Amino acid sequence: MLDLIGAVALLLWGLRLVKTGVIRSFGVRLRRWIGSGTRNRLLAFGVGLLATLVLQSSTATALMTASFAGSGFMSSMMAQAIMLGANVGTSLVTRILAFDLHFLAPLMIAAGVFAFGFSHSKPAKGLSRAVLGLGLMLLSLRLLGQATEPMQHSRVLVALMTSLDAVPALAVIVAAVLAIAASSSLAIVLLAMSLAASGTVTPALGIALVLGANLGGAIPPVLGTLNYGALARRVTIGNMLMRLIGCMIVLPFIETAAALLLDISHRPAALVVDAHIAFNILLAVIMLPVLRPLSALMRRFLPEATEIEGGPRHLDPDSLDTPALALAGAARETLRIGDCITKMLQTNLEALRKNDTARSSGIAAMDDEVDRLNSAVKLYLAKLNSSALDEKNEQRSNEISGYATNLEHIGDIIDRNLRDLVDKKIRNQLSFSAEGASEIEELYRVTLENLRLAQSILVTGDAQLARQLVESKVDIRHLEERSAANHMARLRDGKIESIQTSSLHLDILRDLKRINAHIAAIAYPILKGSGTLRETRLMESPGLDYRRL
């Protein structure tokens, strides 16, 4: 059992390496490609199949597709077609891995480690990680075979399998629970294949385990989209519903299916894999023609009015015909983004003060929410008919869109830079000097004040407040320069804390300065409209005629 647990863990780890490696190498292009495959359901089906062959994870494809559907970039029907393709794709991955390719495992592991050590670019490292992960998966399959071979002599296991064979529905539930725990239907199907190869599992029980693995594999994407809007949750819940329907159709006929597949497969291990492929192809054949009524059912089950906490609240499609109302809704939604950024900054500061990695880890989820809301606002504004907007409303639309974009950039800086710096401080058990910590907290405080000021400017459009915000950039620059100079003085005095945290201190100052530059951007269109913004900050030269420039 210990060997079996270790082999399954190695399989899951290899699968994770392949998925993360491919996403880091081709993530942007892959997302763009998935998003473009929405012209018809057959094309969407093919996109889902190929994407899952590359990622070796239908869960990853499901989460990408749900995010596109949640942002309004594709219809629910096309998203469900992609998911049907993803289900077939993950079954074909099982077939590829079922071939006896264990001799490639050491070569791929060695090549992956060697390439990763000598790669310098992010795409190359990601590809090396994927090769290493594939090698580990092949090795784990060999270990699975070795671990399950003696199990046919275990009386306890034989008794357990006999009881499951007598109650196929219970076998489906057990396999589903294992798939949920492993977050992978692929791993459970391969485990069932190994048990079938050792003679521990009968053909009918193998098919029941395949049904459970498929049903359980649909649940992790549902859990992963609980905080998404209704549009995204329709995709994952709809996919789970389709698999549940498929299981209910096939379960009463597993004995007949086992007899038919034995004539084709001849070997019990091959029968399990073929059953996995046949089930998902059958599901696609049944469900592709009825995707439209299924999508209508999901719309009734999850109407957009039931958007939960994590989705947009103020982007009412019915207001698009009235630009003033639509812009007011977009502004309110953008204020929510600003509130989320405020929370991210406060959380980051608290994590910095208390060396709390739990607080720091929550920032990534907040940044994902910022990205979703930003995409929703920009898509909503894009739906406004620009020809129907007067000059004032068009300028307002540009202000809101620009501010939302700047907030999204701030979120990226907090998540990718400031959070990493806090994690580095905690990981290396570093501490700032009392003076250095005070200077950093002061800069955080001023940044939060400026963000609140920017929120007020978005609502009021007040030119005086806008001028105050731009002038605060000078204060920020002076604070940053003064803190950097004080830090260098402490270094010259040989303060141990300052020496150890030198790069951290200066990097935090730099990132907070960049954040303030994005915050101040809301003021420029307002000052330009009031005629109080100069085109250049350069001091006038006596010999230069600015009227001719």
Provide the low-confidence segments as ranges: 305-309, 544-549
Query: If you compute it from the alpha carbons, what radius of gyration comes out, rounded to the nearest whole angstrom?
Result: 28 Å
Oligomer state of the chains in this structure:
single chain
Structure class? mainly alpha
The mean pLDDT is 81
Any chance you could write out the topology, listing elements then pairs?
Layout: H1 2-36, H2 41-55, H3 58-70, H4 76-98, H5 104-118, H6 122-148, H7 155-166, H8 168-182, H9 185-197, H10 203-217, H11 219-224, H12 230-250, H13 254-265, H14 268-287, H15 291-301, H16 323-354, H17 357-382, H18 391-427, H19 434-460, H20 463-492, H21 496-500, H22 502-520, H23 523-529
Helix pairs in contact: 1-2, 1-3, 1-6, 2-4, 3-4, 3-12, 4-9, 4-12, 4-14, 4-15, 5-6, 6-9, 8-9, 8-10, 9-10, 9-14, 10-12, 10-13, 10-14, 12-14, 12-15, 13-14, 16-17, 16-18, 16-19, 17-18, 18-22, 19-20, 19-22, 20-22, 20-23
What would your notes on this structure say?
The chain is mainly alpha-helical and 549 residues long. It has two domains: 1-301, no CATH class; 319-530, Methane Monooxygenase Hydroxylase, Chain G, domain 1 (Up-down Bundle). The chain has 23 helices and no strands. It has helices at residues 2-36, 41-55, 58-70, 76-98, 104-118, 122-148, 155-166, 168-182, 185-197, 203-217, 219-224, 230-250, 254-265, 268-287, 291-301, 323-354, 357-382, 391-427, 434-460, 463-492, 496-500, 502-520, 523-529. Helix 12 packs across helix 14, helix 12 (230-250) packs across helix 15 (291-301) and helix 17 runs antiparallel to helix 18. It is globular. The termini are far apart. The model is unreliable at 305-309 and 544-549 (pLDDT under 50).
